[in-house]
Amino acid sequence: MSLVGQALPQDAAIPREGRIGVGLRGEFPSAAAEFRRRLVHISARDQSADPRDDLMQIWELCEWARDEGIDVEPLLHAVADISGEVDHFGMGATRRLILRGLERH
C-alpha cells in the first residue's frame, strides 16, 4: 500500500521544533541514521547549481550531528566513499565536499 498523497494518520507524531527528521506513525530514525540519510541525499544530488550551498548544508548538518553526540568522521568517510569524483563547478568533487564536513566552523 502506498502512502504517497495520503494524509498522515491522526496518531502520527509531530517532530519537536528544531528536530531534523520526518517519521510516520511516530517512528523517527536515530540521529545518526538521519545524519547519514541527509549526507547520502547530498551525495546523490552530486552538487547543486551552487556547490557553496551544499558545503554550507554539510557544515550545518555536521554541527547538528556533533551537538547530538554523533561521531561524524566515520559516517563522512563512508558517504564520501560512494560519492562522485567529478568536479562539476570548480569547487571540488562531491567526495571532497563531503569530507570538508570534518572541518569545524
Concise account of the structure shown:
The chain is mainly α and 105 residues long. It is 46% helix and 0% strand.
Question: How does this model look, in words?
Answer:
There is one protein chain. The protein has 105 residues and is mainly alpha-helical. Helix content is 46%, strand content 0%. The chain has four helices and no strands. Helix 1 runs antiparallel to helix 2 and helix 1 packs parallel to helix 3. The longest helix is centred in the middle third of the chain and has 17 residues. The radius of gyration is 15 Å and the shape is globular. The N terminus is likely disordered.
Secondary-structure map:
Layout: H1 31-45, H2 51-67, H3 72-81, H4 94-99
Helix pairs in contact: 1-2, 1-3
Descriptors:
single chain, mainly alpha, 105 residues
Radius of gyration: 15 Å
What is the percentage of strand-forming residues?
under 5%
Structural class by secondary-structure content: mainly alpha
> What letter string, H or E per element, gives the SSE order?
HHHH
The profile of the biggest β sheet is: none
In whole angstroms, how far apart are the ends? Answer: 44 Å
| Helix percentage | 40-55%
> Which whole number gives the mean pLDDT?
81
The best one-word shape is: globular
The total count of helices amounts to 4
